[in-house]
Amino acid sequence: MKATVVSMLAALALAVGVVFAVRTPAGPEDFAPVKVTVAGVPLTLDPRLARAPSELARPALEEIDLVFAMPDFAPAGRGARAKAGDASIAKLVFMTLRRVDDKIEPREKPARLYARFLSPVVEAHPAGLILRRFEPGGPYDGEQLYMATPEGRAFWARCATPTGQLPATCISEARIGGLDLRLRFDPGALGDWERLTAGVVRMVEGMGR
Fold it and tell me: How many CB atoms lie within 10 A of CB 170?
């Protein structure tokens, strides 16, 4: 009966796109570092960072999804993810490591890709970022672009307002250690963007050592 309920909950979470997992006991061996290759780059991972631990059974991957908690960058752990609407989800950062995009470097996207779709109005953000809104009718209609000056090369985040059961979400990208990475996080983390950026650099560079 318990297994049936767990299966039903997991299926429901997948159906509505909600981040959800069931906490399971973990032994010491679960925390042993795991060596994998992502897009040809060798990494050593804490298995508790893996959003889907089963991926770690394959030593060669094209990309991998990780999840950690702010502000201490602790692994979210197996089963430590939250339901949409739960206040704890605001502390989670989802990170995808993947192959480098040869067409455009992430730090160039604000100037080369997004600029032509932005409203000319520039607004200030309390964390020292600038805010530009995307023009209605464009491919990013309803989203906002937050950038560190100049031109978001040090940090940028594209943020969307809540829709349906999906919470407000920001997306940021960077290139570190021979990989491109995409971050997804709650807009509340924008105020801590410098800590987030520095912590992610340390984390990814540490995986490659």
Answer: 23
Which pLDDT belongs to residue 88? 54
CA dihedral 107, 81, 17, 2 (to 10 degrees): 160
Cβ contact 140:158 at 8 Å: yes
Tell me if 38 sits within 8 A of 63, measured CB to CB: yes
Q: Which residues of the chain have pLDDT under 50?
A: 1-28, 79-85
The pTM assigned to this predicted structure is 0.79
CB contact at 8 A, 93 and 174: no
The Cα 68–Cα 96 span in angstroms is 11
Distance between CA atoms of residues 188 and 118, nearest Å? 22
* pLDDT at site 84: 44
* Cα distance from N-terminal residue to C-terminal residue, the chain: 45
How many Cα neighbours within 13 Å face the side chain of 46?
Answer: 15
